[in-house]
Amino acid sequence: MRDGMRRKGLMAAAALLSGVLTLTACSGGGDDEPSEGSGSEQSEADRAAEDADTSTAVISITPDDAAEGVGINDDVAVAVEDGVLDEVVMTAPELGTDVAGTISDDQLTWQPDAQLERGTRYQLTVQASDSEGREAHESRAFTTVSPDNSFTGYFTPEDGATVGVGMPVSLNFDKPITDRAAIEAAVEVNASSGQEVVGHWFSDTRLDLRPQDYWQANTEVSVSLGFDGLEGSDGVVGWQDRAFSFTVGRSQISTVDAESYQMEVVRDGETLRTIPISAGSEENPTYNGAMVISEKLVETRMNGATVGFTDDDGEGEYDIPDVPHAMRLSTSGTFIHGNYWAADSVFGSTNTSHGCVGLNDTQGADDPDTDGAWFFEESLLGDVVTVINSPDREIQPDNGLNGWNMSWTDWQAGSAL
């Protein structure tokens, strides 16, 4: 059909040109003196022939050619009018890779299948055709937003995690945020318990979100981050457009009484076990307050020099390479952990540590019958360990995931919304 259309167009052009020559002869002009209008008539005939072979398909591509700072989620798209998409090829020449994408079932649109890379130049070529099979072509080259001009929000907890009732949603940004209201508004947290969730900015790089009281047990929490294209600060935009979720498990809150040297482990309102402990000594007492387990390590090295406990030679006052069943309670180095180097008689009778809470354990972390091993196995990230009756001050709310040590009024006051 395409060749037939072209022949018809050429025949029409030939007939038109024949008429032009006849009119010229009748006017009495010579062979080398064509009439004034003959050139115009010939140009229109040429255009008629060309139009007969031009596709009516109109391709549109987002973004514009040579665009910079393009978002990496939904900023790239192809569409066609008066035709269908035949082929879309997107490449990242610097990476030497092709980008997978999908043409819609009706062949009218195309989008990449996955998130693009930041700071990368992409090339896009498109072929479409109209109902007569005539082809149309378009191309673009553009560069995505660079790491220097974009921010990332790293989140806790992990997607799909099951956590304790004290786990907040904590976002740490790799660049300072000045438009806090816009960024906080782009974070949506929904809880199956119906609890209201409010954000609190601890700094221009940290936003935590939590309900007024601990999460209700067995709550499903979903979080969406709509940062893509939002300007967090002057010239620095977000690129994340994603969602994650987590489950709040059973409620477990353990109370360490530094005065009685005991820890009561309460699960869903019932006492599960009371464990003898050894907290911080009088010289190095343990912080008071509610502390959330943020890390679990079967074994870890603890060196006093890393947290400021050094001797006259600048060496750590202690350096234990294999501390068993350690769980972090603060950023500054407070742990609740197993202790195999102290005498059994210490636990339940005296406080001897440099600020951590110690439980009786064995070297090698291989005895499941010790208190240290039992508590480690029974604990989740997000469980709460509350210390009372210690001679030290209350832990600061931003030292770890410990925003519970702040009144609800003060917490709300830290929101930008």
From TrEMBL:
The keyword Signal applies. GO terms for cellular component: extracellular region. CDD domains: LDT_IgD_like_2, YkuD_like. Residues 27-55 are annotated as: Disordered. InterPro entries: Big_10 (IPR041280), LD-transpeptidase (IPR050979), LD_TPept_cat_dom (IPR005490), Transpep_catalytic_dom (IPR038063). SUPFAM superfamilies: L,D-transpeptidase catalytic domain-like. Residues 1-27 form the signal peptide. It holds the Pfam family YkuD. The active site is at 337 (proton donor/acceptor), 356 (nucleophile). Pathway: Cell wall biogenesis; peptidoglycan biosynthesis; Glycan biosynthesis. GO terms for molecular function: acyltransferase activity; peptidoglycan L,D-transpeptidase activity. Keywords: Acyltransferase, Cell membrane, Cell shape, Cell wall biogenesis/degradation, Lipoprotein, Membrane, Palmitate, Peptidoglycan synthesis, Signal, Transferase. One of its GO terms (biological process) is cell wall organization. It comes from the Bacteria. The keyword Glycoprotein does not apply. Residues 252-388 form the L,D-TPase catalytic domain. This is L,D-TPase catalytic domain-containing protein. It comes from Streptomyces radicis.
